[in-house]
Write a structure and sequence with these properties.
The strands form 4 sheets. Strands 4, 16, 17, 18, 19, 20, 21 and 22 form an 8-stranded mixed beta sheet that branches. An 8-stranded parallel barrel has the order 5-6-7-8-9-12-14-15, surrounded by 5 helices. The chain has a 3-stranded antiparallel beta sheet with strand order 1-2-3. The protein folds into 2 domains: about 10-30 and about 285-400, Lyase, Ornithine Decarboxylase, Chain A, domain 1, CATH 2.40.37; about 65-280, Alanine racemase (TIM Barrel, Alpha-Beta Barrel), CATH 3.20.20.10. A hairpin with a 2-residue loop joins strand 2 (about 10-15) and strand 3 (about 15). Helix content is about 30%, strand content about 25%. By secondary structure, it is of the alpha/beta class. Helix 5 (about 110-115) packs across helix 6. It starts with 5 loop residues before the first strand and ends with a strand. It has 11 helices and 22 strands. The structure holds pyridoxal-5'-phosphate. Pyridoxal-5'-phosphate binds near residues 79 and 278. Pyridoxal-5'-phosphate (PLP) binds next to strand 13, strand 14, strand 15 and helix 10.
Length: about 400
């Protein structure tokens, strides 16, 4: 319950008591995202980062169309990683020049859609360069391209590494000069570079270090570039606290570090560069809650189970099966009994017929009854669209932006 407002005995989401919101939605389970919290978070990021830094939203974190529409009024651009995300990003009215298209497996058809739209294609391999060159020729459009670099360093503390060592992402830094030489011979609009080293990082200092090293690397690569660097995407990787022992990320020092990098390095060496920070979960993760109803209570050999109508098919991450090595509980509450003291230790399980479907193991909660609503927090990013909704054949949940 890090951010969502609580009043009386009911959890409020977007100012609406959850019982009433559930009635409005018409069925459980469902996801609710708070637009006010998203706005607040973007404002906080903007005030921590130096003026002039462009903020991009990684659509993958939560591509709900209404949320994207809201976000389009708050951020400077979108990063997409499929033609489907591209279409939703364009639907918001965001200018194509502010949309970047990343991802290691872009098909020829997807690349053609991106070139036709006029977005910046982030080249992740030499093959992609060849394809974009051919597409640009056949469409008669100078494709906008940037190079996604797989850096020669790794970031400590990232929950998910996406750069350094052998990677399917980006072009290895040492191979970039040769690709730039090919690019110079092509009729393409070279924009710059993208370096994204890792996700879900809660360590301020390692994020600062990664940004410093990314800037140094790009300055070095710029010497081989066919034109000035106009786009410098430093990635993001800002993490959010999912578990009891996680401390929220302090972003003020990251802003100070970026301000210094702008003055000492980017300004003098890459004066034409628009510097972009690209965030997904940090902007939306804490603004969402998954609400599911208790459909059974069961005692089994001394252990109490609350069985809910949702589960891992909607919120895989909370079950611990989205890449986690050790399963730890996401914050969870009985949303309709916030005034009651914790009274029992229970295990909250989903309705799927698999032992993997856990939402809370041995959590201490007020005594919940059949019909009560359970809230699983930190559900605003990598929730519904990162979950196996077809597994066990239950209906898909609703999503609302409130
Ligand atoms: C997934 C992804 C992001 C967003 O990561 P978060 O951890 O949600 O901030 C940003 N950039 C790229 C290229 C990505 O693939």
């Amino acid at each position: 319950m890090t951010a969502t407002v609580v009043a009386g005995h009911q959890l409020l989401v977007g100012g609406i008591a959850v019982d009433r919101l559930a009635a409005r939605v018409g069925a459980t389970p469902f996801f609710a995202y708070e637009r006010g919290l998203i706005t607040e978070r973007v404002t906080a990021v903007r005030s921590a980062l130096p003026a002039g830094i462009h903020l991009s939203y990684a659509v993958k974190a939560n591509p709900m169309p209404a949320l994207l529409q809201h976000m389009s009024g708050l951020v400077d651009g979108f990063d997409v990683a499929s033609a489907g995300e591209l279409r939703h990003a364009l639907d918001t009215g965001t200018p194509a020049a502010r949309i970047s298209f990343a991802g290691p497996g872009k098909t020829t058809a997807e690349l053609a859609q991106g070139v036709a739209a006029g977005v910046t294609i982030e080249l992740e391999s030499a093959t992609e360069l060849t394809r974009v060159r051919q597409i640009s020729q056949s469409l008669g459009i100078r494709g906008r391209v940037a190079i996604r670099v797989n850096p020669d360093f790794t970031v400590r503390g990232a929950g998910m590494k996406m750069g350094g060592g052998p990677q399917q992402f980006g072009i290895d830094a040492e191979l970039v000069p040769a690709v730039l030489a090919d690019l110079a011979a092509a009729e393409l609009d070279f924009q710059g570079f993208h370096v994204f080293a890792g996700s879900q990082n809660l360590h301020t200092q390692s994020i600062c270090e990664a940004q410093r090293r990314a800037v140094d690397l790009v300055i070095e690569l710029a010497a081989s570039a066919p034109g000035p660097v106009r786009y410098l995407n430093l990635g993001g990787g800002f993490g959010i606290p999912y578990h009891e022992r996680d401390r929220p990320l302090d972003i003020a020092p990251i802003g100070a570090n970026l301000a210094e990098l702008l003055v000492t390095k980017v300004g003098p060496r890459l004066p034409a560069a628009r510097v972009v920070i690209e965030l997904g979960r940090y902007l939306v993760g804490e603004a969402g809650v998954y609400l599911t109803r208790v459909i059974d209570r069961k005692e089994s050999r001394g252990k109490t189970f609350l069985i809910v109508d949702g589960g891992m098919h909607h919120q895989l991450a909370a079950s611990g099966n989205l890449g986690q090595v050790i399963r730890r509980n996401y914050p969870i509450a009985v949303a309709s009994r916030l005034h009651e003291a914790p009274a029992e230790t229970v295990t909250v399980v989903g309705c799927l017929c698999t032992p993997l479907d856990l939402l809370g193991t041995d959590v201490v909660l007020p005594r919940a009854q059949i019909g009560d609503l359970i809230a699983v927090f930190q559900a605003g990013a990598y929730g519904l669209t990162a979950s196996p909704t077809a597994f066990l054949g239950h209906p898909a949940p609703a999503e609302v932006l409130v």
